[in-house]
Amino acid sequence: MPGIVIVGVQWGDEGKGKATDLLGERTDWVVKFNGGNNAGHTVVIGDEKYALHLLPSGILSPGVNPVIGNGVVIDLEVLFAELDALAARGIDVSKLRVSANAHIITQYHRTLDKVTERFLGKRQIGTTGRGIGPAYADKINRVGIRVQDLFDESILRQKVEGALEQKNHLLVKVFNRRGSTVDEVVEDLLSYADRLKPLVCDTGLLLNQALDAGEVVVFEGGQATMLDIDHGTYPFVTSSSATAGGAATGSGVGPGRLDRIVGIVKAYTTRVGSGPFPTELFDEQGDWLRAAGFEFGTTTGRPRRVGWYDAPITRYATRINGITDLVLTKLDILTGLEQIPVCVAYDVAGERFDEVPVNQTDFHHAKPILEHYAGWSEDISGARTFADLPQNAQDYVLALEEMSGTRISVIGVGPGRDQVIVRHDLV
Fold this sequence. Notes:
alpha/beta, Adenylosuccinate Synthetase, Chain A, domain 1, Adenylosuccinate Synthetase, subunit A, domain 2, 4-stranded mixed sheet, 20 strands, 20% strand, globular
């Protein structure tokens, strides 16, 4: 099965980087197909901890060819800062390839993101302020700057001029901010061109050739299903296609070549930013869960909102993505709880919903209907087989599996690279 897609099931931060890393030694290619540096993957290798924001996590695995696909928006300053930081720690970054069709985040995108979010006041989306949304908006409006434009100064200047004709009016007249000049934007972008050029190619061709050769290609999604621009909790979503369908459009590989869809789901639920979250905890138990799971954003450091496992969301994600396997992460965090609540359905004004309501208003007002499962006190961080888990932990996993609509193939029992239980092979 050479084409494997990894997607988040909830609102992100589920541990997708660890799942990609788990496949690393048997993977030939890892491609990031959506998002930008607005989300992070944390990977722990031995005593070393790596926080990646823009780069695909496969870059940490020797022998793997990392690719940034056309569906990604790239902040060049962040890209080269990450590459330099990894190189300084002895990681080989020379194999990275970047799509010529990927779009660039400019300085005016970052400015617009920040001032627009402040302008929204109580209606804020909760963006990271890194320019991702405005860059995607320009892409859809056909006034974006692509990687390939940096290698033709005349074209680049024309495109920047066209973009700034609109952007400067907005910045100056609406937001009372200083506009950008064509020269300063072009000069900034061109400063990266020489270093960027050797990395750039037709990555869609490269990936299709790899699949033709029977090599294993992992498509690594940023954010998650409930943040998808079409299928998430709109408008409190990201600006890209974070579901399995985005792997095809964001990489230039046809959907028929995607053989296995792996969904990553936490043993509880978290999200960052605004928007509905039925199982959210606001009490001491929520504070404990946040602290125990160290639920703070890899990119922003923001405290994550936390809540119990939401089975209807997992079923929804399984359906939307065509998930074949689930990776359940952070099971160890629940150790010590006497009872573990699980959301099995929602109550909306007295009506039971067993699936995610199609109406956003209903979902916003949904209250979780909880079932409770017996907890365990044993340390499970050393478990390497399912049988090693305490019976109550096994029962919890099997209950989630039955509710979720697909099999749980891998279980995370700690942050380390080797702290996993593999029930079914992913490759």
